[in-house]
Amino acid sequence: MPATLTFNTDPSRFHINNKLLLRRITYLLKVMHVPDHGLSILFVDDSEISWLNNHYRNKQGATNVLSFSLLEGNDPLLNNIVEKELGDIIISVETAAKEADKLHVSLHNRLTRLIIHGFLHLLGYDHERSEKKAEEMWDLEINLMNQTFHSRSNQMTQLAINVDHVATVRQARGITEPDPVAAAAICELAGAAGIVVHLREDRRHINDRDVRILRETIKTRMNLEMGANKEIIQIALELKPDMVTLVPEKRQELTTEGGLNVFAQKKKLAKTIARFTKAGIPVSLFIDPEKKQVKASHSIGATYVELHTGRYCDATNELVREDEYQLIATAAESAWEMGLRVNAGHGLDYQTTAKIAALDTIEELSIGHAIISRAVFVGLDQAVREMKTIVRDASMFF
């Protein structure tokens, strides 16, 4: 029996991914060995849950979650009627949203935690019985949260290949080989879902000739990375790539260092986005995984954000890497909840990609240097296929 979600609150107030929550609930039912049991989840506002809290528990005010089990009692007639029904979980989305903001997590993260908490109550766990029972329930909640959070749907994250560094090798000798245009074709034949190129103001690698030919030859999607420079904006408006990604650009940097400070440049970036939107070109903003940058990106009309994964990839130990991962996961869910589409990239390699690829809310990863480096040893076709396998397996099995 499938779980059911019902909303007794204005759904327009919160951007809730029903499919994501249902998949997580299905996973919970499976891992707790009740996959054939029904479960009803009702989302309400503070006023309704306050009434329920007072009527059934004699407690005043709103709470975050209530559970009403159908497994309690020994009445054979009742048991026949409610066979394989666990019961009802009622959640105040208003309270959950406030708690998510206070805890600096996404709304979906908080809703998932409350669903798990209510679900365990339906199975007979009760943190009010004793301190030992409370610790047992807490530990199980954390364990289930981690498992559920790292599970995902069968929708595969896409892999876009950045071919800038093919051009970097070419420019080192000032000749015509290797050609990033040919490299892009090989990447597409190997399964890439898109090609990324960064046309810098100083033309240090990709040049005007490259982007013009690539626009005519790319069969998948062309993502043109660029600074908000007048000359480059004009070129992009003429080329009309499938999307543009605005990134910070410094003359002396070896590669892009950190994300755009959208919060501090909203007026300028909003004008640039408006020009591209008028031309029918979706805009992605390359940002650090910070809530204020996500909010700012949404407020000025971006279609996508691309979350900067550099700090996660460069972490010197697993504790730091896990902290950075959680920031990315939270920012990705927060962006999705606002209606933004989410990509990610920078520094991802054959060891660090899988965990990011497993996140439900991320549509596409942009990877370049690691694949081009690997291609030196195994060839570009194989390097792309190896990375695509990592992304595919993470999408399916995490």
Summarize the structure.
By secondary structure, the chain is of the alpha/beta class. Helices cover 50% and strands 16% of the residues.
Q: How would you describe this protein?
A:
There is one protein chain. This protein is α/β, with parallel strands linked by helices. The protein folds into 2 domains: 3-149, Metalloproteases ("zincins"), catalytic domain (Collagenase (Catalytic Domain)), CATH 3.40.390.30; 158-397, TIM Barrel (Alpha-Beta Barrel), CATH 3.20.20. Helices cover 50% and strands 16% of the residues. It is built from 17 helices and 12 strands. It has helices at residues 18-31, 46-57, 76-81, 93-103, 107-122, 131-149, 164-173, 180-189, 208-217, 230-239, 266-278, 291-299, 310-314, 318-338, 353-357, 369-378, 380-397, and strands at 3-7, 38-44, 65-69, 85-92, 158-162, 194-198, 222-226, 243-246, 283-287, 304-308, 341-345, 364-367. Strands 5-6-7-8-9-10-11-12 form an 8-stranded parallel β-barrel, surrounded by 8 helices. It has a 4-stranded mixed sheet with strand order 1-2-4-3. Strand 7 (222-226), helix 10 (230-239) and strand 8 (243-246) form a beta-alpha-beta unit. It is elongated and about 80 Å long. The two termini are 24 Å apart.
